[in-house]
Amino acid sequence: MIARLSHAIRLAVNVPIDRRIQAWTTITLPSDWTAMRDRWTFHHGLPALASLVALASLFASTLERTDAAASGRAARPGEAP
Predict the structure, then answer these.
(1) How many CB atoms sit inside 10 A of residue 15's CB?
(2) CA triplet 52, 58, 61: central angle to 5 degrees?
């Protein structure tokens, strides 16, 4: 779910900005190009953060299942350790 959010942000924000930037030349460079760069940079960081959250969630769920298996019982969905 979180990985899909990451992908959606890239498609909705970064890809359109990338397409605009590809058309720029030194002559057609807009005066507000730094604002566009800053927007791209910010929205480039969001998917990276979402990916880290997804990875941390994966690790946490794996550790929870490993702890439950080590204690000799199966973990039930939604059960607190």
Answers:
(1) 11
(2) 140
Global pTM exceeds 0.85: no
The one-letter amino acid code at 68 reads A
Residues 6 or more apart whose Cβ sits within 8 Å of residue 19: none
Rounded Cα gap, residues 74 and 27, in angstroms: 65
Mean pLDDT of the chain: 83
Question: Residue 9's pLDDT band (boundaries 50, 70, 90)?
Answer: confident
Scanning the chain, the segments in alpha helix (DSSP H) are: 2-9, 15-22, 33-70
Amino acid at position 25, single letter: T
Domain ranges of the chain: 1-14+36-61
Report whether pLDDT(68) > 70: no
Which residue bears the tokens 């998917």? 47
